[in-house]
Design brief:
The complex is a heterodimer of chains A (about 180) and B (about 160). Chain A has two helices and 13 strands. Chain A is an alpha+beta fold. Chain B has one domain: Nuclear Transport Factor 2, Chain: A, CATH 3.10.450.50. In chain B, helix 3 (about 50-60) runs antiparallel to helix 4 (about 85-95). Classes of the chains: A alpha+beta (about 180), B alpha+beta (about 160). The interface of A and B includes residues 38, 101 and 107 of A.
Chain lengths: ~180, ~160
């Protein structure tokens, strides 16, 4: 004879453990208390979806425009909350939406609103001063652009791969409302 | 516990019912999405596709467009316009001439129907993957679709450059 407090597992005649009507074999899957397990599972799914949609989203790199910093196939994390309290800064790698955010553009912020950007034989100049870009491994001398002023409320973005011909790279001005967030490097 | 399970089952049945209704009675918006999906599937050609598949693509591709269609694609500052089904047939041949296979998809399709539901503005991102090299190119498009004899056709399409130089 033994006293078993309510809610505790009991040994049945066939030696399988039961609690709240849950057979022993199902315990690893749904736990002792299926109600709490269901609540936990729903809560966990809601938190996971919330994080994925509004905070941290994995993105996969296609193309070579950000090579060698981010080679093709690399999976990165997009921080969607990065610009809630601050504006994009120079050298930030930002994610830019297209028609939606299933397919996005990955570029680096080079020039800020009000600055003048020019590229002379591969060397970026901001307001006439050469910009130090430690993330660039090689430059092609056919890169010539500007000078152009970045209008207020816009940013100038470009990829890290400057070895291709300038006409084969997508770069230019972007409105901050199209910037979804920053890549966690 | 029973209430939770009943709620869960009700949600499951409701979701299933919604999708079943959408499947059996698709609205015009869904018909447009399906049509665009078919267009993407038609132009997507796997590497080593046979002549029958290629011939079908060439035959079907122009018929997704109106007789007087106008498609403008701007790529890295260069603009190209194609007009009419004959130009679209040429575009189909150009796509077939590409090395390896291509996989075309439309993403983030947003459809706005007019009041008569015989014309629609569609915003989307189109991607084209060259399967041999895994090179992906993406373009934003604004598409005007019109309903002719019960079939949705592309009447106008204009690409956008997401970054302006």
């Amino acid at each position: 004879m033994a006293y078993v407090p309510p809610g505790q597992p009991t040994m049945t005649d066939d030696n399988s453990t039961e609690s709240n009507g849950v057979p022993g074999w199902a315990r690893p899957l749904i736990g002792k208390n299926p109600k709490m397990t269901l609540i936990r599972a729903v809560l966990f799914a809601a938190i996971a979806v919330g994080i994925y949609k509004f905070a941290l989203t994995p993105i996969k790199v296609y193309g070579v425009s950000m090579a060698p910093t981010f080679p093709q196939g690399k999976v990165l994390l997009l921080n969607r909350l990065a610009y809630r309290s601050q504006t994009p800064q120079r050298a930030d790698v930002v994610v830019i939406r297209m028609a939606g955010d299933s397919v996005v553009i990955l570029k680096r912020v080079i020039a800020l609103p009000g600055e003048t950007i020019s590229i002379v034989r591969g060397q970026v100049h901001i307001d006439g001063e050469p910009l130090d870009e430690p993330y660039i491994r090689a430059r092609s001398e056919n890169w010539n652009y500007g000078p152009k002023e970045v209008s207020d409320g816009r940013y100038f973005v470009i990829g890290d791969n400057r070895t291709t011909h300038i006409d084969k790279q997508e770069f230019g001005f972007v409105s901050p409302r199209n910037i979804i967030g920053r890549v966690i490097e | 516990m029973k209430i939770l399970w009943r709620l869960f089952l009700a949600a499951l049945l409701g979701t299933g019912g919604f999708f079943a209704y959408q499947f059996f009675y698709p609205g015009e918006e869904n018909r447009i999405r399906e049509r665009l999906g078919d267009l993407a599937a038609t132009v997507s050609i796997e590497a080593g596709a046979g002549n029958i598949r290629k011939g079908l693509m060439l035959e079907q591709f122009p018929h997704y467009f109106t007789q007087d269609c106008e498609i403008t694609v701007t790529l890295k500052g260069r603009k190209r316009t194609m007009s009419g089904r004959s130009d679209m047939a040429q575009a189909g041949k150009y796509l077939l001439g590409m090395q390896g296979g291509i996989d075309v998809e439309f993403h983030d399709v947003a459809v706005t129907l007019n009041e008569e539901k015989n014309s629609a503005k569609v915003l989307l991102t189109s991607t084209m993957m060259m399967t041999a090299t895994e090179t992906l190119s993406a373009q934003e498009f604004e598409v005007k679709m019109v309903k002719e004899e019960g079939t949705w056709l592309v009447s106008r399409a204009k690409s956008f450059e997401s970054l302006t130089r």
